[in-house]
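seq as requested:
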Amino acid sequence: MYSQMTTRVKRESGDRKSLRKNLNSRRNQMKMVETRVRKIPQTRAAIRKRRVMNHMSQLETMTMMKAKELLPKRTADSNKGTYGKLLIIAGKKECTGCAILSSLAALRSGLGMVKVVSPKSNFTAVMNTVPEALFSSDTDDSSIRDDIVWADAVLIGPGIGTGNRAKRLVNLVLASRDIPVVIDADGINVIALNDQLKKALKKKAESDEVVITPHLMEMSRLCGLPVPEIKTKMKETAVQISAEYGVTTALKDAATVTSSPEGEIIVNTTGNNGMSTAGSGDVLAGVVGSFLAQSLPGYEAASLGVYVHGLAGDVAAEKYGVRGMKALDIAEALPEALLRIEG
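struct tokens:
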């Protein structure tokens, strides 16, 4: 359920890690418009089991009013560190666009800073398109761990492939603690193929916010159900996976369904068939990662991200039509979408 989101605490970048550790206990002290208390990690499994049984009674649809309530607040007295730092691990050599689209979308969604980890061959293309981004091609274990310490949230998966390098990177991210994570695309595919990574995902979600953003085929690989069956029971599938792994799930389709580990579920109301284009999912992952780095909880970051992404798609369709629009148009339409939400 949605709450009137809270007094936003102004803080310097160095304070964000300690604030995140206290996020769950702080939430328990808030006054809610409608009760939705996310328990501390030790009780999350019990809460999840009880609430999933009633998930259909908690079905919501996303609206512009709810989106406006959730938008991270901005203050006059702030700096780039105030609005979060997102680490994006994306784009093997053949998939440069994944790194570009996700990092551009993150910055277009209010993020303060973004760092892209991608092969050296992608440097020029990324810098020419997103000059505000930091860039690293160092993927040894110590470098990735240092990058994670720098960040307020991590996005991993877009275009990283499913080989040994991708498995190692996903494992490093899942082994991290005290940092929220978005897992998209090949990050999901890698986990679906590896039982040890499935266990690592569950372990990570016991202590930190984790959001996964699968399309139907990626969900099929993860849960083992055929795509036609998933399509006929989107809500049930999303809730089942969220409960099994302890994650927020944004199951992408014409009407994307987002579910929380506790069984809450919300259906998106924005977007159009012009968004069925290569790179659209990378844009969404960047938006969700941006909101997560700006300290929104996982369910709220995903629900808001899906709505904003869809609205940006609607803005792009107004300009280019559903046949002519592309993923970059969606990313570039994000500022207009946010302006419409803010009113």
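Residues 1-14, 23-44, 46-57 have pLDDT under 50 and may be disordered.
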